[in-house]
C-alpha cells in the first residue's frame, strides 16, 4: 500500500470511484480497442446508474475514451469534445447479474470497424478491474502492459503464446485462462513486465486457432 491508496488519486471530479475510476475504465477500454473510437454505447449499472449523473460518471467515461486521464481539466467538456470529433455516444442501462455496483458495459466501434465489448468495475480509490472482454470473464487492472488472446479451446495455444513472449525476453507477471465451455472459445490474459512489440501482436494474430488479439500498451 502507498500513500495514494489512502488519500486517493489526483483527479478532476467529486468521487474517486464514480469519476476517477470511470475515467480509467474509459481510458483502458479505448486503449484495448487499439484505434480511435468512432461509436460508443455506454450502459451503466448499479450506483453508476443511480448516482453517476451527479458525479459526472458519463462525462468521465467519455473522457477516458478520448484518452484523458483522471486529472485532465477537460473532463467536464468531454461530451462536447466527443461531438466535435464526430464520435457517436449513447447511454443506457446495463442488464447485468451480480455485478459490482460501480460497473459500466461499453460497446465500442473503431474507425476501421473493429469492435470491442468491455465490462469495467470501479473498485474504489480510482482503481478498476476489467471484468469481461467480448462476453468472456477476465480479471485485470490495466496497470501492466496486458495481452488478451481470444482463441479456440484447443491444445497448444498457451505454449505458442508463452514461447513467443519468452523468445522476445518478455516476462509474464500474471497469467489467467478462461473459457466459455470445453472446446469452445477461450481467452488468455497475460500481464507483462515489458511492453509487447507490435510485430509479436501481429504474429499472434496470424496463428491458426487465434480469433482475436487485444493489447493494452501503457506507452
Question: Would you give an account of this structure?
Answer:
The chain is of the alpha+beta class and 219 residues long. Helices cover 31% and strands 35% of the residues. The protein contains seven helices and ten strands. The protein has helices at 3-7, 16-33, 47-55, 57-65, 78-84, 157-167, 198-206; strands spanning 37-46, 88-93, 102-110, 115-124, 127-133, 136-140, 146-152, 172-179, 185-192, 210-216. Strands 2-1-3-4-5-6 form a six-stranded mixed beta sheet. InterPro entries: ACT-like_dom_sf, ACT_dom, ASB_dom_sf, Fe-S_L-Ser, Fe-S_L-Ser_bsu, Ser_deHydtase_bsu.
Can you summarize this structure?
By secondary structure, this protein is of the alpha+beta class. It has helices at 3-7, 16-33, 47-55, 57-65, 78-84, 157-167, 198-206; strands spanning 37-46, 88-93, 102-110, 115-124, 127-133, 136-140, 146-152, 172-179, 185-192, 210-216. 31% of the residues lie in helices and 35% in strands.
